From TrEMBL:
One of its GO terms (molecular function) is alpha-1,4-glucan glucosyltransferase (UDP-glucose donor) activity. The keyword Nucleotide-binding does not apply. GO terms for cellular component: cytoplasm. Keywords: Allosteric enzyme, Glycogen biosynthesis, Glycosyltransferase, Phosphoprotein, Transferase. The keyword Acetylation does not apply. It comes from Chrysemys picta bellii. Transfers the glycosyl residue from UDP-Glc to the non-reducing end of alpha-1,4-glucan. Glycogen synthase participates in the glycogen biosynthetic process along with glycogenin and glycogen branching enzyme. Extends the primer composed of a few glucose units formed by glycogenin by adding new glucose units to it. In this context, glycogen synthase transfers the glycosyl residue from UDP-Glc to the non-reducing end of alpha-1,4-glucan. Belongs to the glycosyltransferase 3 family. Gene3D superfamilies: Glycogen Phosphorylase B (3.40.50.2000). This is Glycogen [starch] synthase.
């Protein structure tokens, strides 16, 4: 690869780069990747970097500034398509870097769907059924994207060298058409999770041990996604450069999509001043907990730890099943060992609900009433104290509060009386009787009773600062927690633990997630930096659950000073997840695509460390620290009685109270 200044074919303005997210909803990992790497990509390509996606009016109103295209070729392309019945919009995405966006209204060209599906069948032998709306939208979007690129190349006065980067199967049709129509575009395809892999893992199969044995055509057909699988696989085999978001996904893609990719890693930039932000955000969560547990607030909030799991509601894939089992075991261990630590665990997973439940809203109303009562009494007390000091007398404490004040406070206290346990779920679930999280909680008996040292709160909705219940956004919530737990069985990259890392919050990941494998490769002792890697690949489920319980129990035994030291170490890893470091993989992919698509104009020699061939082993970037806190196993051994050290957490201490029934075995 030669730098832009020395290109033999012309300067940088002749190298427009287009990127297709392939989905409309602004949620999930792909959206996170594009949003967070926009700054560094814009710095690299300047005004020649464009994003393309479907037009969704609700999102455009709040996130996009519609403007006239400054590039004559782009303006002529949009005018030409709009004159032929399309609806194409141009603007700036209001995020850091402010990249240009081209938005295609797929609904406006739905009249062409049958004709385009026929062309897709005749050129690629891919048939799309009429009832799959998502696949039909992918066809519309793909044909519009290819139409736009073809028109753009035709409108350019000089031959451009175009790079098209397509994400996921939803954008794959556009890539396929670029190749079948022989458009002069260097193509890159990135999969963030294979379509078939996600379906297989959701079916509770032994996925990673049987990757080589799956009959992919039959498996896709049995799940009625064969047409989608064909679109994804065709895009993978048509593209000049194929990348994945992690090494674990690369192994999966090699077996399921039958092509070995290079590597392309995605993440976001680091953030600082995290310790003060942690304290501020934790205070907001504590306020919610005070209201939610009114009448049962018999635990010390200064000795309370906040754990959480968040993400798509895939009960087994995201590890919610093993996490709940580990929480039940942790609850038992904390109770029988007389621990003063209380753990409040949040499950942030959107599910089908019809509204907040009354008891949750009542708790916040009761908390606010107590706060207003305390403030009213404080004002009267302060005024009497002030007047007493003005005349030079010490206050008579017996006269500072009158009978009316005591009556007001008694009424407020009586309002906090509750004859039921605090609710586990903050919303009214539509499928309460079949919900896997709630059914598991019932089986394990985690009902938020006074005797429980582990409390569970299921919040089946995305967090928002405008919520009347928990008014914090996701970033603030993560900063206020002590530990993120993500024991996923299927996790191509793992944005949630990475978000924890850049905010200085320790997290638990697995060796089946791209993030966990990446950290194991770059850090000598990840757990010392607050990155606990759970073994879900080479251990049985019960053994993995025992290891997770060990991590949680050891974390609960840390002192406040140890947690602060650990957060400092965790935050140091944010540079490892900065786009300035990870962006080089995308840069290499773009340069390689140019060299493959235009071999007469570009050459590319991959650096040794990012070569697509056999990758040389690398020594960890972050060595093991020498100061505490050390790894969780060390903590648990040093704090357990001598009789249990040799047996670890597989040995359950005998309950001193015969009424305590541990929910221990799986």
């Amino acid at each position: 690869w030669k730098p832009p200044g020395s290109l033999p074919v012309g300067p940088l303005p002749r190298l427009p780069t287009w990127e297709w997210p392939g989905g409309g909803a602004p949620v999930g990992g792909i959206y996170t990747v594009l949003q967070t790497k926009a700054k560094i990509t814009s710095d690299e390509w300047g005004e020649n970097y464009f994003l393309m996606g479907p037009y969704l009016e609700q999102n455009v109103r709040t996130q996009v500034e519609l403007i006239d295209p400054p590039h004559p070729a782009v303006r002529r392309t949009i005018d030409s398509m709009n004159a032929k019945g399309c609806k194409v919009y141009f603007g700036r995405w209001l995020i850091e870097g402010g990249p240009y966006v081209v938005l295609l209204d797929v609904g406006a060209t739905a009249w062409s769907l049958d004709r385009w599906k026929t062309e897709l069948w005749e050129s690629c032998a891919i048939g799309v059924p009429w009832y799959d709306r998502e696949a039909n939208d992918a066809v519309l979007f793909g044909f519009l994207a290819a139409w736009f690129l073809g028109e753009f190349v035709a409108q350019c006065e000089e031959k451009p060298f175009v790079i098209g980067h397509f994400h996921e199967w939803l954008a794959g049709v556009g890539l396929i058409l670029c190749r079948t129509r022989k458009l002069p575009v260097a193509t890159i395809f990135t999969t963030h999770a294979t379509l078939l892999g996600r379906y297989l893992c959701a079916g509770s199969v032994d996925f990673y041990n049987n990757l080589h044995a799956f009959n992919v055509d039959k498996e896709a057909g049995d799940r009625q996604i064969y047409h989608r699988y064909c679109m994804e696989r065709a895009a993978v085999h048509c593209t000049h450069v194929f990348t994945t978001v992690s090494q674990i996904t690369a192994v999966e893609a090699e077996h399921l999509l039958k092509r070995k990719p290079g590597e392309g890693l995605g993440k976001f930039s680091a953030m600082h001043e995290f310790q003060n932000l942690h304290a501020q955000s934790k205070a907001h969560i504590q306020e919610f907990v005070r209201g939610h547990f009114y009448g049962h607030l018999d635990f010390n909030l200064d000795k309370t730890l906040f754990f959480f799991i968040a993400g798509r509601y895939e009960f087994s894939n995201k590890g919610a099943d093993i996490f709940l089992e580990a929480l039940a075991r942790l609850n038992y261990l904390l109770r029988v060992n007389g621990s003063q630590v209380t753990v409040v665990t949040f499950f942030i997973m959107p599910a089908r609900t019809n509204n907040f439940n009354v008891e949750s809203l009542k708790g916040q109303a009761v908390r606010k009433q107590l706060w207003d009562t305390a403030n009213a009494v404080k004002e009267k007390f302060g005024k009497k104290l002030y007047e007493s000091l003005l005349v030079g007398n010490l206050p008579d404490m017996n006269k500072m509060l009158d009978k009316e004040d005591f009556t007001m406070m008694k009424r407020a206290i009586f309002a906090t009386q509750r004859h039921s346990f605090p609710p586990v779920c903050t919303h009214n679930m539509l499928d309460d009787s079949t919900d896997p999280v709630l059914n598991t909680i019932r089986r394990l008996g985690l009902f938020n009773s006074s005797a429980d040292r582990v409390k569970v709160i299921f919040h089946p909705e995305f967090l928002s600062s405008t919520s009347p219940l928990l008014p914090v956004d996701y970033e603030e919530f993560v900063r206020g927690c002590h530990l993120g737990v993500f024991p996923s069985y299927y996790e191509p990259w793992g944005y949630t633990p990475a978000e924890c890392t850049v905010m200085g919050i320790p997290s638990i990941s697995t060796n089946l997630s791209g993030f966990g494998c990446f950290m194991e490769e770059h850090i000598a002792d990840p757990s010392a930096y607050g990155i606990y890697i759970l073994d879900r690949r080479f251990r049985a489920l019960d053994d993995s659950c025992t290891q997770l319980t060990s991590f949680l129990y050891s974390f609960c035994q840390q002192s406040r000073r140890q947690r602060i030291i650990q957060r400092n170490r965790t935050e140091r890893l944010s540079d490892l997840l900065d786009w300035k470091y990870l962006g080089r993989y995308y840069m290499s992919a773009r340069h390689l695509a140019l060299a493959k698509a235009f071999p007469d104009n570009f050459t590319y020699e991959p650096p040794e460390e990012t070569a697509v061939s056999v990758r040389p082993p690398r020594s960890p970037i972050y060595p093991a620290p020498t100061l505490p806190p050390r790894n969780p196993a060390w903590l648990s051994q040093t704090r357990q009685p001598a009789a249990t050290q040799s047996q670890g957490l597989n040995h359950v201490p005998k309950a001193p109270n015969p009424q305590i029934n541990p929910c221990y075995p799986l």
